[in-house]
Write a structure and sequence with these properties.
Length: 108
Amino acid sequence: MSRRAFDGVLRRYGEQVLLTGETGARRARAVIRPVLERSGEGTQFLPTPLGRRRTDRFLYLGEPGVPVAWGDRVEWSGPPCRVSRAQAIRVGEELSHWRAELRPEDEE
């Protein structure tokens, strides 16, 4: 997806988020959606010796000018989350957007 196309997605579906990490606090616009199991259920579970544990995850797609890094805290309209994975998505030589996986803070 080109940067111009992604800017349109952010304008239409994005929301303001606050990222806090080693580089300080910064505001960004991002699309955040739950990662659903193939069954379509919104909540994900992981078997453990003590029973099943929730493993909710969210997909973060953010503007290219605001980098996201592992461990950053994300405040948005949902539960406060931490970045568990992040990567820059490029189209050719141009940075299109940032993609990250978020996990609610109470699940770490």
